[in-house]
Amino acid sequence: MNQSRNLDIPSRAAARRIAFLSHPGASPHKFFLSILPSNRINNMNRLKKSLCLLLVSVFILVASPAKSGLIINEIATGTGSDWVELFFSSSVRDKIDISRLYVTMYYGTNESLGTEPITLYSYDRPETPYDDRFAVVHLTSPGIPDETDRTGDTNHNGYLDIYCNNYYGSLWNSEGVVAIDTDDNPASGGIIDFVAYSNRDGNPNSIIQSSVDNAISSGQWKNILESNIQAGLVDIGKTGLKPYMSIARKDFIDTNRPDDFAITSFQTPGKPNIFSSNSGGKRLFKCLRKRITIIPGRGRSDTTNIQLRVLDICNIKFRVFTSTGILIHESQLYRSVPPGDFSIQWRPFMSRASSHTSMYIGHIEAVSTGRRISQAEKIFIILSRYK
């Protein structure tokens, strides 16, 4: 019988060690690997690769700065009182004072946003009753005090309003640009964000074209078709936007291209954009909150906002009843409310009838005369006069 077959397992391992160490190129590291089973060696190789990938990932995270940016999120051009919504985002908790910046179309005379700090945050702070990431700039509303860090949301509409005395014609509903800039000069290199739109009538405006060229030079807009500048702008349709429409960013990613935006029938100032349509549906609105609690000393105790999402143009009325069916409040008739977010205010402590601590029933009724449909919804309001 072959003598090697009579060796036990430890003896065979010792023979392999002696043979390996007697080799001229042997090293302790190679020797260590030679005595390990093959499956353990493979596991160690995988572990080394994983550790290398982890170190590379940590290096990238440390070396890469946190991304943040102030962007144009929504534009309303056909309202008669045009506005632009700003949004601030960051991968970390951050903030920015926008008061010294301009929201401008680079035509006529424009002014900076404010004279005292107006701070946007990259996150929605729980201590404020509005979303701290947004601000709505009204371009041609001089004489109205801005909502700032000091004042907060004074008109209680759920977002910060900034009022500017810009060029009286404001945003053209045919072709135009909107920019966030450090000044009112597109050639100075201070553009922070930029959007250009057009009805694509084949007759580009030379002033608009000049502003687009400056934005391209600053890296804030991409010229996708050099031969046809209008084709590289956001398309608003041949007749422009209807009063309830807006140019809205599809998401919070900015590639400086017209594809970042779409036309929506839902204006949502101070809130994330929505694009879904209810055309042909049976619903005219949706209640965003069906149970509301009002307690003095918590938030704005004298006012409550009934938040609706209007899905089609309609007339709306709001009534409040006691649990026994007595009418204590009746709103005005809100005529031709356009699609989008809509707020109805009720001040229970200023009602014609005394509002005691109790549960009240709110009735919201809507009628669409064009489509000859109606809708009614019920909400519940708990009112407490005790803190």
How would you describe this protein?
It is a single chain. The protein is an alpha+beta fold and 387 residues long. The chain contains 4 helices and 21 strands. The strands form 5 sheets. The chain has a 6-stranded mixed beta sheet, with no helix packed on it. Strands 14, 16, 17, 18, 20 and 21 form a 6-stranded mixed beta sheet that branches. Strands 4-8-9-10 form a 4-stranded mixed beta sheet, with helices on one face. Strand 9, helix 4 (206-217) and strand 10 (234-235) form a beta-alpha-beta unit. The model is unreliable at 1-10, 17-22, 29-33 and 53-66 (pLDDT under 50).
Average pLDDT level: 81
- Strand arrangement in the largest pleated sheet: 7-6-2-1-11-12
Structure summary, number of beta strands: 21
Structural shape: globular
Count of domain modules: 3
Low-confidence parts: 1-10, 17-22, 29-33, 53-66
Tell me what portion of residues adopts beta-strand conformation: 25-35%
Classification by helices and strands: alpha+beta
The DSSP helix count reads: 4
Oligomer: single chain
How much is the radius of gyration in Å?
A: 32 Å
- Main β-sheet description: 6 strands, mixed
- Spell out the helices and strands N to C: HHHEEEEEEEEEHEEEEEEEEEEEE
